[in-house]
Give the backbone structure.
Amino acid sequence: MSRIRHLITLALAVIAAVLSAPTAAAAAADGEDVKYYVVQDKGDAEPEFLFEIAQRYLGDGERYTEIFELNEGRVQPDGTTVTTPEVLLPGWILLMPDDAEGDGIRTGPLLEVTPPAAEPGGAPGTGEQGATAPGATDAAAPDAGDDGAGPAGWLVPALITLGALLVTGGLAAGVVLLLRRRRAGRTAEPFDDSLLRTDTSSAWMTDRALRVLVAACERGGIEVPVLTAVFIEGPAMRLRLQNPHDSAPAPWIAGDGGTTWTAQIARLQAEPASDGQLGGFSRLVTLGVGESGRVMIDFARARGIISLDGSTRARHEALRRWLGELTSNPWSGSPRVVMVGNGLPQQETAEHVAGLEQVVPELVLGEGGVLVLSQAPVAAQQELLNSRFADPRFSWVVIVLGQVPVARWRFTARDDGWLRSDFLPDVRFDEQTAVRRVDQR
């Protein structure tokens, strides 16, 4: 159902963008009052980006595309133009959708900056660039038809029709899916996967497998092993152990000198399972799907900073999926999530603070959670974290967005959906690949 909701939301967003963009653009051209935002200079902090601005003033970071479409190609006060959603410079003036609200949004006539005049032959002129005053007319007006709609006047009704078809198709698909689920007796989803957006059945299968592992160890008088990673490979689940143990309780089979235990998934579904807490696996997270199957890793085993590098959009998407699973899966116990600094996704289940010093008093032994930093800690903060990680009772996971040379584990999220590290196979963290490959197994 989450994919159906996503389809309907996308269709509605297309219609809204089509209806609002021409209105706002026309108002700006006519010198009427419009809403706009001036990109701020944060000094040494991470620069502003469209996703953050959309989240702050539109309530949804995914609406950054609307802001970009309103401003693409617009000449800015420094003479440059907006050409890509990833680059914003301080002082740029962004035309905003009509429903933008919040401190920083301004309302009034928006001055249109004209580009430098071109000399004969196409070379830029040396004349000063000016600003068109509100209400001024442009001699080079766009061509218009007899009805005044312009050459692209067909675009609005065409896109509205397309959006209506998408909504209708999504609703029809939703009805069919709901009827199928009712016939199968599965009308309710296991949990809200709106943040994770991957195959939820895998989470419940993993939860049962972990409970079977605990029960098997209890029956065999074996200490439950510490896991660093879990691989779901076709019909089997393979566990990577932190400390080798060559004696595995049935149905698990030890291999690779006791560094891995493997069991058939079908066998795991029939074995007795523990109904106790799975605190030992509470930071186990799906990274994505590789060529051989799903890859999961236990962030608690890092015992140091975990860095997530890549473009802002890619690393935010990977982070949202990590946090979505940590706060939604059956075995994590909804850990506390604290985000420190600016430019981080506005996770509903997370606390947001300005600086690490606000959290330091709470980084105590015996308690834990997930700490997300928008930038690498300074030397004194790094020393403090190192002293905490040296004690095995310290159970906080620390994730830093960006390159951190001293990080224990390093991940790079790419715009093509690949997540890379130097100690695990490359995986895809994007929705389509994950769902498709799970279905193919």
Observations:
- The first helix runs from residue 2 to 30.
- DSSP finds nine helices and 19 strands in the chain.
